[in-house]
Amino acid sequence: MVSLNPKIFIKKGFRFIFLLYTKVNVTLSLFKSHIPKEETPYYAHLKASYTLEAAVVLPIMAMILVMVLYGFRILQVQTCVESALDHAARQTAVYAKAIENDETLLLCGSVIAKKSIKKAKAPTEYVSGGLAGITLINSKASGDYVELVATYRMKFPFPFFYKKTATIIQSSKSRKWTGYNKENIGEDDETYVYITPSGKAYHANIECTYLKLSIRTVSVLELDRVRSKNGNIYYACPLCGRGVKTGMVYITDYGENYHKSLSCSGLKRTIYHVPISEAVERGYHSCGKCY
Ligand SMILES: [Zn+2]
Ligand SMILES: [Zn+2]
User: Fold this and answer.
1) Is 195 in the same domain as 158?
2) Are the C-beta atoms of residues 109 and 92 closer than 8 Å to each other?
3) What is the predicted pLDDT for the residue at 1?
4) Exposed / middle / buried, residue 273 (Cβ in 10 Å: 0-12, 13-18, 19+)
5) I need a labelling partner for 112 at 20 to 30 A (CA). Which of 165, 235, 272, 288 fits?
6) How much is the pLDDT for 252?
7) How far is the CA of 212 from the centre of ligand 1 (A)?
């Protein structure tokens, strides 16, 4: 979560420059048009407008350029903090198995995050209070997740704005590496079953043959003779099987498609462990083989 979006900041900055430039130009041309050209030599009015441009427009443009560059600095700090938080949250999630005390765990996460920010050479001179100004005091580690929250203030490097700061909040959440707890799952007395996103049946046993993917290879030339265990022919996988004329392809016993690539997502299987009521609600029926 970020309270100040640098992309919008930069976009607004550019629009502001453009508007200002047009306004100044209009003012200048009005100023020029008031000069009676017959009486004033051409070079004189040219000189004056250049002087005005150099004295007024140039410093303003320079300041705006600094503002835009400052926008990039905010972006740089945010990117560094974000990747440091991600890294630290993941590391802390692993330590959660060994460290049971939430406070200690968060302290650990905070140290890792600060180290990573330092290592990434984030321009912390733009942060109010420097590296120490980035606080992770709002982080949480209760329950199954570790959430590291970094809060800091960006300084404005412009005159008249020295006292102004922009608060930025960023966070990263990781699930603790504590595994799943069978005791907790049984607590609500509800039976849990296994389902797959593409399947139609729920299974009592994760070892059920319908849940297992038995990948084997066949020659493309054999495909018109090979049938799946449901008795269906195999079609080309829309992701990887189109236009395959020769060689070997991958099929599964209960699959519908043949695949050219072993790493195709069509060959992977996601299994969810859900309460039986949820499976029924989602239109699954009991498996004929294991239920
Ligand atoms: Zn089954
Ligand atoms: Zn495929």
Assistant:
1) no
2) yes
3) 40
4) exposed
5) 165
6) 87
7) 9
In a domain, 252, yes or no: yes
Q: What is the DSSP string of 165-231?
A: EEEEEEEEEEE-S----HHHHHTT---EEEE-SS-SEEBS-TT-TTTS--EEEEEGGGTTT---TTS
Q: Which domain holds residue 214?
A: 182-286
- For residues 52-69, give the mean pLDDT: 85
88-119, pLDDT tens digit by residue? 999 999 998 888 888 999 999 999 999 999 99
CB 153 within 8 A of CB 128: yes
C-alpha 46 to ligand 1 mean position (Å): 88
If you search the block for the tokens 């004295």, which residue do you land on?
Answer: 55
Q: At which residue do the structure tokens 């976009």 appear? A: 11
Contact yes or no for 208/238 (Cβ under 8 A): no
Q: Given a cut of 70, is residue 23 above it in pLDDT?
A: no
What's the number of domains the chain is made of?
Answer: 2
**Per-residue confidence (pLDDT) for residue 31, from 0 to 100:** 57
Number of H helices, E strands in the chain: 6, 10
CA of 253 to the centre of ligand 1 (A): 14
The length of the chain is: 291
**Section 258-277 average pLDDT:** 86
